[in-house]
């Protein structure tokens, strides 16, 4: 990924899965583990931000007559 280029939600999740798998193997040094953990935390922030943005868009699309906003929850499947 080029500097300044924004990662997609799907790519961030894929990378997070790779990090979890690598850390779970336990073959890294403490320093490398900390670097991967830090990368994972940054990716989590990105994913949370993108989910918040998506939730906001869904709420805006659900506006009803008279401008009233109907906020309906939606489940995230794991």
Can you characterise this structure?
The chain has a domain at 9-59. The mean pLDDT is 84. It is an all-alpha fold. α1 runs antiparallel to α2 (30-61). It is built from two helices and no strands. Helix content is 63%, strand content 0%.
What is the structure about, briefly put?
By secondary structure, the chain is an all-alpha fold.
Write the layout of secondary structure elements.
Layout: H1 9-25, H2 30-61
Helix pairs in contact: 1-2
Low-confidence stretches: none
Taking all Cα atoms into account, the compactness measure Rg is 17 Å
For the secondary structure, the number of strands is 0
Shape: elongated
Largest sheet: none
* Estimated share of beta-strand residues: under 5%
Helix content: 55-70%
Q: Quick check: average pLDDT? A: 84
Number of helices: 2
In sequence order, what are the helices and strands, one letter per element?
Answer: HH
Supply the key terms.
78 residues, 2 helices, mainly alpha
């Amino acid at each position: 990924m080029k500097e300044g280029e924004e990662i997609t939600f799907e790519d961030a999740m894929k990378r997070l899965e790779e990090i979890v798998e690598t850390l779970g193997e336990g073959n890294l040094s403490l320093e490398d583990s900390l670097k991967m953990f830090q990368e994972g935390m940054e990716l989590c922030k990105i994913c949370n931000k993108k989910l918040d943005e998506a939730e906001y868009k869904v709420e805006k699309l659900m506006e009803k007559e008279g401008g009233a906003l109907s906020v309906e929850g939606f489940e995230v499947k794991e």
